[in-house]
Structure formats: structure tokens, C-alpha cells
Amino acid sequence: MKRNRVVAIVLMGLLWSTSSTALAYEVVDVIEGATTIVGTVTLNGPPPSPKAYNLITFPDPEYCGRISDGQGWRLLKDFVVNDENQLQGVVMVVEGVKSGKPFSLSIPKVEARDCQFLPFTTVVRDEHGIEVVNMDPVMHDIQAYETSLSQGTRVLFNSPLPFNPRHQRENIHATHKHLPGKSLVHQFQMSKGRKTFVMQCGFHSYMESWAIAVENPYFTFTNEKGEYVISSLPPGSYRIRAWHPSIKHEEVQTFTVKPNETVRMDFSLESPVRRWTAHTMQTPPRFTAAALGHPIFIEPLVEHQRP
Description:
By secondary structure, the chain is mainly β. Helices cover 8% and strands 38% of the residues. The strands form 8 sheets. A 5-stranded mixed sheet has the order 12-18-17-14-15, with no helix packed on it. A hairpin with a 6-residue loop joins strand 17 and strand 18. The radius of gyration is 23 Å and the shape is globular. It starts with a helix and ends with a strand.
């Protein structure tokens, strides 16, 4: 009886392994008939006001205030548009590709610089992880989550990111002409149904970086004109998704591309112009430097932000 049970377990494991392998993305040469997708992403409506954070209420207000509005507020600008409302930083992902070119990215790199995570949007691969480096002379606290609208949020990891000793800690005017700090590399496994990854600093909550999990290398990011290009795609029928972390209603289009064909797929994303947030600018602010009991000077030496 025990032997039969062992055999059954082994067979189940083999079946699971076989099915998992069959579903995995396969790298093949894409030479003949390779296709290309091009397009532009536009924001329909004015971008919402950026979230605003009173630097007095967070650690390191003088250093982190090197990026601020000149009145002691840090603005989190999650929408970057040009004069024609074309949206930068949208992740374009082709879905349904079973085989094709190899991945050029294994583990994405996120940099903590001037108390902001760069880039704001990226991609991750399940079971591959992420690398975070600190360019700042202050300590950060990495809190990473996976989330979805239907299943909620789950903690992936929480790790301190020590300050960079190579930065001139006492020089508020110092630039980042130095080596990065020691890398923090974390591997993680996403739950079924959750494809959104978000990382936030536990000390400076205006530091955010977002990613979407991808299963193939056919993805890219829109540039400052909202344009994107995805090349070397095998002919076939697929879906393409335009993903931005602050837009809850994603747009997905289906398309069929023939050998050596270039297909244009433009997107118009609805702006969450009336979104609610607790992080709004208050005049006068509820807390001022007097709450700290000593004088501080917040100067936008790196970037003078404007709403």
C-alpha cells in the first residue's frame, strides 16, 4: 500500500513537472518573419495632482528636501506627460507569447537616489528577484509587496538598506559622483493571480517603485513622447497590455501580426483626475519645523518641484 502511494506521488510530481515545462516560455531563434509593434500612449484628461508629503514629518528632511517644492513638501509625480498629454513610463507587455527571443533582463535594478526610487516603473520575473542599491548617505527601509485588485496585498520581504558610506554625509551639496552602496538582492515568488510588485521605503513613504511581472521578454516602456516599439515578435495572435500603476483600469487589445509585418497599436488611458489621497498639500501645514525643536533648512538643491 505504501509503495503504491509513493508511486502515485512520483507520478503526480512528474505530471506537474511536465505540465509546468510545457507552459514555460521557450527561447528560439526568431529570424524569418519577425514582426514589430509600434504605438503611442496618451492620457485622456489632465493628470491628477501629485501626492504631497510634508518633509518635516519624515526622517532626514534636509537631505531628502534637496528634491522639494521650496516650501518643505516632497511631491510624488507618478504621471509624466508632455504638452500633447502623451504618457511616459507606461509598461507595454505582449501576452500569450510561448516562444521567441531570449530575455535581456534577469534581475531589475532599482536605485535609491536623493530619497527616490529610480525607475518608478519596471518589470520583474517570478522567482528571479530584484536588486536595490543605495546612493544616499541616509538609511532606507525596503518594504516589498505583491498586490492585485481582486486578491489584495501580501508582504514579500522587508529589509534595511544601509546608508552609502562613499557619499559625503556632511555635505548637503554633494553630488553622486561615487560608487553605489552594497547591493541588496532579494529573490521572491509571486502568488497565483498577483502580478503587481510594489516597493516602498518604510522611513520615507514618498519613495515608491512599481513593477508588473512578465512571462516573456516582449515588453518595453514608453518614452517622453509616449512612444514604444517592440520588435522580433514571432507572427501570431496576441494581447498587448498598457500598464501604469496609478491607473486601475488597464487597457488590453488583441491583435494578429503576419510575417515581416509592422502593426500599430495606440492606447488612450483614462486619467484618474478625481482620485482621492490623504497626501495633499496644506497651507499652512499642520506641522512645521518648530515641532522638531531645532532649526532646519530645506532647500531644493537638486530639483525645485512644481505641482
